[in-house]
Structure formats: C-alpha cells, structure tokens
C-alpha cells in the first residue's frame, strides 16, 4: 500500500535523523577508531544538524526542493563513509557509487545530476585533505564521467518512455475516432432506412389497411412496396460500396467476385494490372458490382472472367461470361419491365464520359467492356470527395444546430426534421414526415386550420419570427419562438423553408417569477408608507401602526378579525365583496370604502389590494393598503357600543 506524500516525507526524515546515530553505533561496535577521529566527529555533527533541521521543517509542513534534499542526503551518507575511513582509496567506495548509479537510473536526469553534485561534495574535499590535489581531481573526474554517462542514458530512457506514453495516447485517440466513425456510420444507415424505405413501408401498410374497402388500393400497395424494395437495394449498394472502397481496389474486386462465386457456383478468373492506383476503387467497384450481378442473375453462366488493365490515357474494365447471351430486343423489354440494371450502368458510364460496349448474342455469352479516361476518373473522385465533405459538414451542422428545426418544401410538406424537434414535441419522425402537405401535427388543434392556412399562403421568401405555442404528443403545450428562413436547396435548386423553434418556457417562468417578486416588493414598499393590513383566507393576520392610528383600534383588536370586517361600513359591503372578487380573479384591485373608526366616525379611504405569492407560486395572502381621501378628523373618545372582537 502506497503511503501518502506527507507520510512518506515524515518516514524519510526519521530515517535521515537516525543515520548519524547508526553510523556512530556501528563504528563503536567495530572499534575501527572513527570515534577518535576529529574529522569524523565534525562530519557527524554537521550531518546530524542537517538531519535535525530537515526533520523540523517536515514537521512544520514546509515544502522542500526534492533535488537539493536528494543531493544533500547523498553527500551526508558518503561524507560519513569517507570521513570514517579517510586513509582508504576511493576505489573501495566504487560499489557504493555504482549502487547509487543503478538506483539513480530510475530518476530524471535533473535528479541524477543533483545526486552527482552530492557525491562530489562528499568525496572530493576529503580526498583533497588526505590524498592531495591529484587524487581529488582524478576521483572528481571519475565521478563526473559516471554521473554524466548515466544522465545521458537516463535522458534517453525518459525520452523513450515519453514516446511510448505519447504513442499509447495517440493509439487511444485513433481507437476513439474509429469508434466514433463506426457510430456515425451506424446512425447514417439507420437514418437512411428510417427516412426512405421505412416511410414507404409505412405508407404501403396504410394503403393495405384501406384495401378492404377499396380494392384499387392494392395497386398503390404494389407501387409502394416496389419503391421500398428499390430504396433498400440502394441502401445495400451504399453500404456495400463503402465497405469495398475502404478495403481497397484489389481486395474490393476479390470480394465482389468471391461473393458471386459463393452464391452461384461460378468459376471465376480475375486479372488486375498491379500498376493501377487503388484510388480508382471508388469509380471502378460500383460498375464492376453491377456487371457481376447481371452475369450472376441473368446469364446462367458457368464461368466468369474479370479483367482490369491500363490503356493509353485511361482504364479498361471487361467482364465476360459463357452464359446464354441476349438480343437487343430482350434488353429493351427487360428495361420496360422494370429491370433497370443496364440502363443505370449506361448512365453511370456516361456520367464518367466513358465508353460502354456490349458484345453478345443468343447462346454466345456476353462480354461487356468499359473504357474510362483518367481525367474523368480524377474529376469524379474530386466531386465525390467534395460531396462526402459536404455531407459530413451538413451532418455536423445538423448535429450541432442548437435549436429544434424542421424543413418545409415548396408545397408546405415537412421534408426533414431534427432529432431535437422530435425530442421537444414527442411526435415521431414517421408521423411528421408522412403528414400530408399543409398538415402540421404540432399545431394546437383549436387553431390548426387557421395556422396551416397562414403558412401555406405566406410568401416562401418572407422571413419572419414570432412567438407561438407547440402542441406536443399527450396534449402538452410548449411556448416557443418560431423563426422561418428561406433557403436554397443546393442539390435541386428548390426553395425550402427552414423553421427553427426556440423553447422559451423557462423564459416565461422566469418572467412570471420576476412579476411576482416585483408585486411583492411594491406591496411591501407601499405597506411601509401607508396604513396596511394583511389577510390570509379572509382572516386579518398582520397590521401596521399606521392602520391602527387610522382606525383607532389596537393591534390585538384587529388581528383575527374575519369577513365581513367590523371596521367596514355596512353600506359599502357590496363594494367590498366585488373588490374581493376582482382581487381573486386578477391578483390586484382597487376600490373606495368607508372605514368605521373606534370613536364612531367614518373616513373614506382608497383601498388597493394585491395577492402576494412567493417565487414558487405559493400564496402569502393579500396585502391591502388604505389611503385616506381628504382630511382626516382627529379621533374622539371610543364608543362603548363599538366593541371589536378580540
């Protein structure tokens, strides 16, 4: 178990303090004469003084420089050893020096140099006194060489250790980045599934539910399922292409062919020019995958040959099979029936400004040759790289966008929605994206028709901001600031509306608290200046001296009074009840009442009341001030028949 830093310092200080007594005890037991040597006794006294001083500083929690203390510790130990045997050669101390050096190999070069200074400070002066300048210089040089070499080795070891630590950190960072990329890729695939194929399947299910009453809806179901199938195939191609492109050109070609062989039992022959750069994989592999898939599904072949080689200024990709072949008319009929593989292949090659040749005949197999120019390949790579960066940038913007948002198309249909909006409202992405144009589930039901009409009629280029209320799942309402901005879709040039929502529920709660605090402070201020009383549930709970002076009643006579209050003229009770009703409904009210004073006189006052709540909304009752209207006559003798309840 590792001791705390302060405890370790105390233990080391205690060991240092016992060094001189142990050395003297050993000398006495061995009877080596050191205790009769004045030099040894002087060295022992100096060392004991040093050890005692360090002990006292450690007891007082004084921070000491470790390098200096280490050097002095080494000087103390070696100084005692040399002073005890000054006549011996320093060579007898070499094992001690080597032991120290080995121990110092685990320290930093700076600490090692400090200990070297301690060694020299302990040995060289003694050698100078007992053996002369030559021996002192020789031994000092020996110590300097040993310590210098060890310092260099220690620095190299420290640099290697730092390098290993940096490498481990870099590896951990790369691993974290890889895990983050995997997570983002999973999110992207899930998003593609959710936004396209899943929505089409949901729509098909809704059509299927209505097919019982409308048989013609089955046609819509078929169309929806066909669209979902195409979307899933497209997603499969996207995922497959990403994996193959990440694997490299040769590995990607081998994987495509091997999968076809495994599924159909074809015999395959692959020839790839090793001089072709691997960066063409993003262009070549999608074309190769389509060609191999066509041969596997339609050719009924037993052998497949794939060739990729370099030509002058470009690449040649050839895929040949020994299948049944086909005619041009069969190809046209296949495209009309919905098999668009060759049509898509032609468009892909045409986009690359390449050439596509099909050599086939019934019973003669098929050979498809694709020629691509280097310039077109490089241009496509730059375009795809730019698009990839744009997708990553857009994804980062969406992920980092602080406010929930939706995107409306030019027909007022919701075409995109952020995760934050889903979390805010509780509506699912499917419910929002499948809504018909002009239908917005998040609008309050009582104003949904009018609000939707305003949204449809508003000029798409009109940017505006307003406060609104969102209708969330379960009936919850959320106050928001809605900002609408016109944006241009970079992909199709369409005009879109970006609608952002800033939740201001917390702001409104803060405003409510501020109003409550302001009303409370105003009531307290008025109460400090004018006659006032505080009531809680119709019972007087507090009055000030000014109100007692106004009415002539004592405080104990007023506290505890209940409605109708005895000090209010009966003729004005109706006004008092109406005033109380307004106070309950609005939180503040004013009226004029007649106060019956203790001497029987009456005084008309303007009463202003406010319902006081603390910042948490808990009612503290009503604070009501009474301001006399006109001159107030002095109080006369109390009327005995006017008895206030105690």
Our count of helices gives 20
User: Outline, from the CA principal axes?
Assistant: flat
Largest sheet: 5 strands, mixed
Total tally of structural domains? 4
Strands of the widest sheet, in order across it, are 1-2-3-5-4
**Straight-line N-to-C gap:** 76 Å
Helical amount: 55-70%
Secondary structure category: alpha+beta
Classify the beta-strand content into a percent band. 15-25%
Number of E-type strands = 15
> How confident overall, as mean pLDDT?
73
Unreliable stretches covering 5 or more consecutive residues: 88-92, 641-646
Radius of gyration: 47 Å
Domain PAC: 464-516
EC number: 2.7.13.3
Transmembrane segments: 39-58, 65-84, 90-107, 112-130
Organism: Paraconexibacter algicola
Could you give a short description of this structure?
The protein is of the alpha+beta class and 646 residues long. It is 56% helix and 18% strand. The chain has helices at 5-17, 19-30, 38-59, 66-84, 94-104, 109-130, 132-210, 217-247, 249-264, 281-298, 328-336, 341-351, 374-400, 419-425, 429-433, 448-457, 505-529, 545-551, 555-558, 573-586; strands at residues 267-272, 303-311, 314-321, 355-360, 366-373, 405-408, 414-417, 464-471, 477-488, 495-503, 532-536, 539-543, 588-596, 602-613, 619-628.
């Amino acid at each position: 178990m590792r001791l705390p830093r302060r405890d370790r310092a105390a233990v080391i200080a205690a060991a240092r303090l016992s060094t001189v007594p142990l050395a003297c005890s050993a000398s006495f037991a061995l009877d080596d004469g050191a205790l009769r040597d004045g030099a040894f006794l002087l060295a022992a006294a100096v060392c004991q003084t040093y050890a005692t001083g360090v002990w006292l500083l450690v007891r007082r929690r004084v921070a000491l420089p470790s390098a200096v203390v280490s050097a002095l510790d080494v000087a103390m130990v070696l100084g005692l050893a040399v002073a005890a045997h000054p006549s011996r050669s320093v060579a007898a101390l070499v094992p001690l020096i080597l032991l120290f050096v080995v121990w110092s190999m685990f320290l930093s070069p700076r600490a090692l140099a400090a200990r070297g200074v301690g060694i020299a400070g302990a040995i060289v002066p003694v050698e100078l006194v007992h053996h002369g300048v030559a021996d002192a210089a020789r031994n000092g040089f020996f110590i300097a060489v040993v310590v210098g070499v060890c310092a260099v080795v220690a620095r190299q070891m420290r640099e290697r250790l730092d390098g290993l630590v940096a490498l481990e950190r870099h590896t951990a960072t790369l691993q974290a980045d890889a895990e983050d990329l995997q997570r983002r890729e999973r999110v992207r695939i899930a998003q593609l599934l959710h936004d396209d194929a899943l929505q089409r399947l949901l729509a098909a299910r809704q059509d299927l539910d209505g097919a019982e009453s409308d048989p013609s809806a089955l046609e819509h179901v078929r169309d929806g399922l066909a669209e979902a199938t195409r979307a899933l195939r497209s997603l499969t191609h996207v995922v497959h292409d990403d994996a193959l492109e990440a694997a490299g050109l040769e590995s990607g070609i081998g994987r495509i062919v091997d999968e076809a062989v495994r599924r159909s039992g074809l015999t395959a022959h692959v020839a790839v020019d090793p001089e072709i750069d691997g960066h063409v994989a993003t262009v070549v592999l999608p074309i190769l995958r389509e060609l191999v898939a066509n041969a596997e599904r339609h050719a009924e072949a037993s052998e497949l040959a794939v060739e990729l080689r370099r030509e002058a200024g470009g690449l040649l990709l050839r895929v040949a099979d020994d299948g049944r072949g086909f005619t041009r008319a069969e190809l046209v009929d296949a495209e009309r029936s919905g098999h668009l593989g060759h049509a898509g292949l032609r468009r892909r090659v045409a986009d690359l400004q390449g050439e596509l040749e099909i050599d086939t005949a019934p019973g003669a197999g098929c050979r498809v040759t694709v020629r691509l120019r280097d310039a077109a390949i490089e241009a496509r790579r730059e375009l795809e790289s730019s698009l990839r960066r744009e997708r990553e940038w857009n994804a980062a913007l969406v992920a980092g966008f602080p406010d929930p948002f939706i995107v409306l198309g030019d027909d007022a249909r919701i075409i995109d929605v952020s995760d934050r909006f889903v979390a805010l409202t509780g509506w699912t992405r499917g419910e929002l994206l499948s809504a018909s144009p002009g239908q917005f589930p998040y609008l309050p039901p009582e104003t949904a028709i009018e609000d939707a009409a305003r949204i449809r009629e508003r000029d798409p280029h009109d940017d505006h901001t307003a406060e609104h209320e969102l209708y969330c799942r379960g009936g919850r309402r959320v106050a928001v600031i809605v900002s609408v901005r016109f944006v241009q879709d970079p992909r199709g040039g369409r005009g879109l509306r970006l609608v952002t929502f800033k939740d201001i529920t917390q702001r409104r709660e803060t405003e409510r608290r501020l109003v409550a605090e302001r009303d409370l402070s105003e009531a307290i201020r008025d109460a400090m200046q004018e006659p006032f009383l505080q009531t809680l549930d119709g019972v007087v709970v507090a009055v000030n001296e000014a109100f007692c002076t106004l009415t002539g009643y004592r405080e104990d006579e007023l506290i505890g009074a209940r409605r109708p209050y005895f000090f209010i003229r009966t003729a004005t009770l109706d006004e008092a009840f109406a005033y109380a009703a307004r106070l309950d409904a609005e939180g503040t009210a004013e009226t004029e009442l007649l106060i019956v004073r203790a001497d029987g006189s009456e005084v008309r006052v303007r009463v202003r009341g406010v319902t006081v709540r603390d910042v948490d909304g808990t009612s503290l009752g009503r604070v009501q001030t009474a301001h006399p209207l006109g001159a107030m006559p002095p109080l006369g003798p109390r009327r005995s028949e006017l008895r206030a309840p105690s």
